[in-house]
Task: structure prediction
Amino acid sequence: MPSIAAYEFADFVQTAAFLKDQPVFALADGTVRFPAGGERSVVAHEGGLLSARLDMDGARLLSGGEDGRVVAITSGGQAEELASIGSKWVGAVAGGPRGAVGFASGRNAYVRLPDGTLKTVPHARTVEDIAFAPKGLRAATAHYDGASLFFPATGAEPVSLEWKGAHLGVLFSPDGRFLVTLMQENALHGWRVEDGKHMKMTGYPGKVKDWSFSAKGKFLATSGAPAAILWPFSGRDGPMGKAPLELGTRGDTMVTAVACHPSEDMVAIGYQDGMILAVRFADAKEALLRRGGTGPVRTMGWDAKGRLLAFGSESGEAGVVDISG
Result:
């Protein structure tokens, strides 16, 4: 059984990640905690934190909150306000190439360009999420009835990718060839970026709330079932006509979080009862990382070397698992 450094927080953990070699936990109460080696607490937002993600190079944690601010936090605990839009809530943030930062509020997507210029991209519907392509300054948003693609440095109109229903999250594949959305329904939807070809990923018994691409981009691991569902994304057509892998099946216990290893074909799987398993793609071999807890695992993140796994739960339990022993 791997060793675990356990922590307990008073609110649920929105995001667990690593800044350089330090575990960091963003809480719904607006604070960002650095618990290792004596706890440090950074107040990122007044009123509540709504979204937190690492930027593209992993050097900063970006967060958005109910106070209308976007904040970047470094491994040293320094907080820098990147943008403020008044009383409007910032519901999603994302890091882009060369330090660009995107965020969403109401019917607007915003992109802070590498030179500090703030671009506003209006939408007809509420923008639920934003993401950047892995290369070039291109962004995507999720909203009702589909997704949009745009180049924030230009004034060109966004390109619409339509599919009926509410789309709540958006993600590019690591090679930039595919765009995938989380839906309010128990499904994912995707498009091939070059020609807009549709990809339907259905059959989930529950809503998909977490996802993670594997290190080489061959699989997209997802929650929303009593196993981690991994859709194959190698080949021109992505998952179309291919059956997904199902890893870590545990009866009726739902998977609530997934995190693919940064270099190996392996995924960490968190469950509604707090258990965490590590499972290899090739042979489905399982390793128990955590027996369970008081609440569902909400978030997980590996360090750059793939030796440490940070996790956080809806009950405020958190920790760092050392898989090397």
The chain is about 0% helix and 50% strand. The chain has a mean pLDDT of 96. The longest strand covers residues 159-172. Residues 1-31+207-325 form a domain with the Methylamine Dehydrogenase; Chain H fold (CATH 2.130.10.10).
